[in-house]
Amino acid sequence: MSFEKYYEVFKAYSDIYSEEYKKRLETLEPLLLKHMPERGKVLDLACGVGGFSFLLEDLGFEVVGLDYSPSMIRKAREFARDKRSKVEFVEGDAKNLPFRENSFDYVLFIDSLVHFEPKELNQIFREIARVLKPGGRFILQFTDLRELLPVLMNGQVVGAEYWISRVLIDKDEKTVVIEFQSEEDTFRVRFNIWGKTAVELLAKLYFKEIHSEKINEHSYFQIYIPKSKSGLEAKPSHNELPVE
Ligand SMILES: C[S@@+](CC[C@H](N)C(=O)[O-])C[C@H]1O[C@@H](n2cnc3c(N)ncnc32)[C@H](O)[C@@H]1O
User: Which residue numbers delimit the Methyltransferase domain (predicted)?
Assistant: First the structure.
């Protein structure tokens, strides 16, 4: 059970030239343009294969993309070579960012919450607040999986070849295992269940919300700025990469 197969199968996350990926870019581009008024340095956190990094580079931002998965970073670098992009792609962990405090004007965190348990997301939010400049913006897009689950339980077709054959929610309703099936094979992925209220409560510890918008039935786009940074931990990590 892993995300590898899921990302391999669903081109919306693994092929920046696919229609599904382009649709995600087209949906978010106007919102990003509106809420990123000044050009500056961007961390595309959990960047995957880098589509949003390239979009922001094309719009004039200086972008670093970071992802935990070596294969995602490898693909992002291949796309970067193909596009003659200058985006720097770093393999790393969102829970322990290899950047100094106050390094970025924007941190983008798109469609990635399902990977993380509450304790992990807490660490990540703290790290985002640490690396953002005072007044910098944290841009979060996520799907409310709690709202979406009843829809998924109807055995929807998801993508061209796969349909959902089973949805197994744990008794605490913290995680869900979704089984995807095609004519050829079956695989399962465990997702962490995040609802909007829980995300907002956690974010409140570190950020002030300045914008919240529903972008389709179950997906949200939120903008935050770090609260006063004085009370936050700002420990430099030993494996820091300098960001000029
Ligand atoms: C659904 S993909 C989204 C990728 C990208 N933001 C996008 O919208 O195309 C989620 C990404 O989170 C990455 N990820 C999971 N755990 C991570 C961690 N601890 N640190 C950084 N990235 C992580 C995965 O490797 C995956 O590329």
Answer: 42-136
CATH number at residue 114: 3.40.50.150
Q: What is the DSSP letter of 157?
A: B
Domain that holds residue 51: 4-144+193-240
What is the spatial distance between Cα 86 and Cα 216, in angstroms, rounded to a whole number?
Answer: 32
Residue 113 alpha carbon to ligand 1 centre in Å: 8
Q: How many domains does the chain have?
A: 2
Output the tens digit of pLDDT for each of the chain's 244 residues.
Answer: 679 899 988 999 999 999 999 999 999 999 999 999 999 999 999 999 999 999 999 999 999 999 999 999 999 999 999 999 999 999 999 999 999 999 999 999 999 999 999 999 999 999 999 999 999 999 999 999 998 888 887 766 566 688 888 999 999 899 999 999 999 999 999 999 999 999 999 999 999 999 999 998 899 999 999 996 655 444 444 444 444 4
Minimal-distance CA residue to ligand 1 atom 13: 46
Residue 217 shares a structural domain with residue 154: no
